[in-house]
Amino acid sequence: MIARLRGLLDSTAADACVVDVNGVGYLVSASAKTLSALGPMGSSVSLHIETQVREDAIQLFGFTSLSERDSFRLLTTVQGVGGRVALAILSVLGPDELAHAIAVSDTASIARANGVGPKLAARIANELKGKFGAIALVGASPLPVGSAGPGAVADALTALAGLGFRPMEASRAVSEAQAELGEAAGVSDLIRLALRKSAR
To answer: Residue 176 in contact with residue 185, Cβ under 8 Å?
Structure first.
């Protein structure tokens, strides 16, 4: 199985690129976010690869980060989510944004992806709740909710519950985080600090 490719960017399309590795061109499907991060033609690229083997084809899916690859793997465990649908979702939601959307059952954000209707978005949120863990939520990218106040606290509690926290644990961690950050703290800051405090 191919796990990683390093070479020169030969060409790109709407949903794929060709990576030239010592004269051999590999067609790699990728999300819009990954493709936009590759740089100009001829530049050196390194991609984490997920290889899917079927009766009629071998398909390579490429990712610039391990978190995106792991999100792809989780998405494709859901019935009705193939490689192309998973890439469509990752084109509109980064790994941390996807983890947050699933944790708070934000099916509307998931359904923004091409080929994902409300029913499939709900199935993704239900089946993957609690499976993304804390790693994606404490990534470098900001979470897509910036509201402050009581709504932020409620969203943070919901997110922690989705990660498997018991109500009392979640309440204590979020309360400690809010006490340290102040009343105007946003959801993403509350979640990150609450996760750090609960890991001590």
So the answer is: no
| The residue to which tokens 């610039």 are assigned | 64
> Tokens for 122?
């709900």
In which residue are the tokens 């947050």 written?
A: 100
Write out the two tokens for 176: 């400690």
CA 156 to centroid of chain Cα atoms: 18
* Final residue of a structural domain among 84, 106, 137: 137
Task: Domain of residue 152: give its range.
Answer: 145-198
Give the model's confidence band at 167: pLDDT under 50 very low, under 70 low, under 90 confident, else very high.
low
Q: Work out the pLDDT band at 137, boundaries 50, 70, 90.
A: very low
Q: Are 19 and 5 in contact (CB under 8 A)?
A: yes
Phi, psi of 48 (to 5 degrees): -75, 135
What's the CA gap between 171 and 95, in Å, rounded? 25
Residues sharing a CB contact under 8 Å with residue 11, sequence separation 6 or more, in sequence order: 17, 18, 41
